[in-house]
Amino acid sequence: MIFIKTKLPGAFVIEPERFEDERGFLARAWTAREFAAQGLAAPFVECNISYNRRKGTLRGMHFQHAPHAQAKLVRCTRGALYDVIIDLRPDAPTFKQWLGVELTEENQLMLYVPEGFAHGFQTLADETELYYQMSAPYVPAASGGVRWDDPAFQIEWPANDGHERIIIARDCEYPNYAE
Length: 179
Description:
This protein is mainly β.
């Protein structure tokens, strides 16, 4: 695997290394040894699939409060999406900064999201599916979020090209971020 550092410390874009032959290819999606070598020793304890019927579906920006904070490894298995993370670690030099990465079934990139980050995405194609692993189980009482269009972050979401943005009320009703 090729770990590509991002502008947000601890967050990585990960490119699987392909071993190809006439049958196709094999690529490692996760190995404890390579993650530990990058200082990412998050043992994954839960995996989820997110299926999204329509282009323009926006989910986020979600996180879990400590002590239930989650690191995530996100991959698009079908379709395409714009994956966004926000650094919400108050002591980090990149506090309140965001990063967006296009993940597609073709590019097979993954995004490693450290604990203390909010995460969300917008689909860029119909029938988009994500597979993601988490370092801690989902705890409803620890669930939190920030609004996807909160002016505190100024996230630049992709244009919808005439498609309606699909977003649930909960994700629109988070209050403005307050430190």
